Predict the 3D structure of the following.
Amino acid sequence: MGATTKRRLASAALAIGALAASATARAGYDQLNLPVGVTPISQTAYDLHMLITWICVIIGVAVFGVMFLSIYLHRKSRGVTPAKFHHSTAAEIIWTIIPCVILVGMAYPATKGLIAMEDTSEAEVTIKVTGYQWKWKYEYVEDGITLWSNLDPTSRAAIHGDVSAAENYLLSVDQPLVLPVGKKVRLLITSDDVIHAWWVPQLGMKKDAIPGFVNEMWIRIDDDKAGIYRGQCAELCGKDHGFMPIVVDARAADGYAAWVTERQAAKTAAAPATAGTLAQATAQPTPAARAAF
Amino acid sequence: MSSHTAHDEHHAHDDHHHGPEPGLMRWVYTTNHKDIGTLYMLFALLMFFVGGALAMGIRAELFQPGIQILEPELFNQFTTMHALIMVFGAVMPAWVGFANWQIPIMIGAPDMALPRMNNWSFWILPFAFTMLGMTFFIPGGAPAAGWTMYPPLVLQGGWNLAFMVFAVHLMGMSSIMGAINVIVTILNMRAPGMTLLRMPLFIWTWLITAFLLIAAMPVLAGAVTMLLTDRFFGTSFFNAAGGGDPVMFQHVFWFFGHPEVYIMILPAFGVVSQIIPTFARKPLFGYESMVYATASIAFLSFIVWAHHMFTVGMPLTGELFFMFTTMLIAVPTGVKVFNWVATMWRGAMTFETPMLFALAFVILFTIGGFSGLMLAIAPVDFQYHDTYFVVAHFHYVLVPGAVFALFAGAYYWLPKWTGHMYDEKLGQWHFWLSTISVNVLFFPQHFLGLAGMPRRIPDYAVQFADWNRISSLGGFAFGLSQLIFVYVVYKAIKGGEKATDRVWEGAHGLEWTLSSPPPYHSFNTPPKVTEAEAHS
Amino acid sequence: MSGDASNTGRRTDNRRSALRLAAVALAMFGFGWALIPLYDVICEITGLDGRTGVAQAASLPTQFDADRTVTVQFVANVNSALSWDFAPAVISMQVHPGKLYDTHYLARNRTAAAIVGRAVPNVAPNVAARYFNKTECFCFSEQSLAAGEQREMPVRFVVSRDLPPEVKVLTLSYTFYRAPENG
């Protein structure tokens, strides 16, 4: 019975898997694997992920292969007599050393990748990201722009209703974080209340937002990768942890510059104050700017 | 005074020469290792179903996008309680139950070394879990900040925090007393000739586990006490405004938490190392390297904790250190897997239910080990961290890992414990249904995590819907399959084919020299153990 | 059983072992608490948590690296439980390691009642924290602002000449919290 059931379940799983694959075309995410992403860091992470996955698959096939061969060959029902051996120093040394060598092979690229990721120097844009229960605040340190980013109201309305009514259900916000492509952006991440984590899979990095402490991470979106990238809070932060998405709107240099100018003009019109004074710290978004992304 | 002494002596006399007391009070007052082992295991089984019911609720909510059954706050309570109950209520007590039943009869001791403490360490547990479970019915509900209890979120909880902290204290005391008992029993009560390197591997793994418990559980007790004082007595251990640091809790918690992982899995290694040789009819390959591998895993478990916290913003040197030490764990773990395969090689295998579960353990635990290795690579962990990939990983090592090893051990020793053979056919059904459904349940969660689904969310974006539905279906099937196990155990207790003393053709060890079931008091006269017997 | 000498001996042994192990457990409980000061020490040595150092004016170096400049950014956060406005006077400065600089933040109490606040400093990247020393800072003590009061909050700092060469940008961040003394 076991084999038939297994086969039937496997074909059912395959069928649903095909369904999932077709869903992939519609959604922005790859359904089975880590996204390659749009930054050098996400590329590094993806490459390492694939390398280690394949190493694990090969080891797994080898070890389980021997095991299944043994299960097939060395069954009592085949009338075999069990051997008596119970150790072999040579074998044990070999299978201690080989994993060590493989691990060193993995550690080298991993170390290189990690060092690259932690290098936050020479950023061109600095943005302070503050997590709140349950929204994000983005402050462009050099340009004096402040954005609040909440779950898009159509998603919120759909939670207890028809989720297909909301475009990008739970992954859309009223105001996205606008970033320039091709520039090194440094994010200073902190929190107002509990620990949150800022994560956009396509950008390849996540960092905890810790109250009272400032973490930093950097992003450089590839020049040709302008577009919308979506992510979510990745640290349990209470009731609405699942409802504080992150949306990044990556724009080409001139588009970004135009957006900055526009935002600064809007702010000056709303509250006539100059950078460096206290009004900047409390600037709230104007209702007109709250369009869904 | 004198009458009291007389009573004591009379009681002791009873204990040593007759069977159990009649009636329910037997279970309350018992100091017999077999009774206490049974209590632990039944309690663990009950908690397995309570925790499982919570899991069914979680999977039902995640069956489709949108909120249908559990509002977010209640969902968080379910995930938190599911974890606490499964870790502290099901897996750990089940292993302590195994230790109680098996250690004395495997090392030729008449009982555990400290029988009265043994009674206490069990009877604390029902109170601890009643206290924890009660929080569902108090204002503010049950703890909802995850079993990791990270501040500041956990400090936003109401009275449930106090209940949880006291419950954790009680569980900790119970575990520590249990661990002390195990160590003293193994070190002081072995039969003549049972040298340390002749001990069955299950005994070795439990000895090392017990040391881990003694070292790790008190640290958890300290950490949760600090939460309590931060919440109710105005201290600022973890409050940045008062000069504390919330990340410090994570360091202290995971200093406990990583050894805790091995507390749940090392006895599983032990059980599997008993079962595979029995059904391969061939001695365990590399006994000594198994012992050393277990010890090195235990040692490494204390210096890898911060790999749970790669995203908190550690300096590069810290990240590198914890990445390298974590990767190193793959070496002794690999040795174990290779030794199991080498034990099977050129054996004469049969595939009764315990062996099936043990083989599934080797494969599925190794899959969990692979994903663990992937998670160790810090630069990629920034992507995996706090996603369903992590959920898939630790469920692979805990469910088809620790829980399958518990099933394997239960089927293996059930004929010894009850005196009756279990129903092999039902056992096989239980195995195949569990193995298929557990993979349908957890394997898709790897995909969900890689595709970007964070863990601990009650609702998700529509592109995660398909795999979540499949996972939920697997979950319901897995949950239902476990009812078969309960029925098999019930049937074996009630009656059935009489088990022989040795039960399994290839079984070796002192427990198989006793009758099935063993007498209430066994090995009152210690057996003599020779080299040939120990390692055959 | 009381007549069985070896059994009684074993019982004493068991008790002794159990007590020893209980002592180990107790010591580990103590160790859990000891991790708190230990963590502070480690943080001080490594800058693990990004907390900044305090320098005494007398111990400051008299020379500075004229040919090395480091950017220091200033960031302000206000906890939402505190109704203050808080911002740096300048968003960044170019500094020479070893030289003493002055700057200030601005804070204003938006409410109609006096409030005591407390600022928690933090430096990113955290490895740089122990090279960032303040000789004077409003974060050294609690600050009280009267209703509607606005005040300059001075900081005098020096970036150590030992700052690792790869660090080119330092961010000094303050988070103002409502002090518990407000009741």
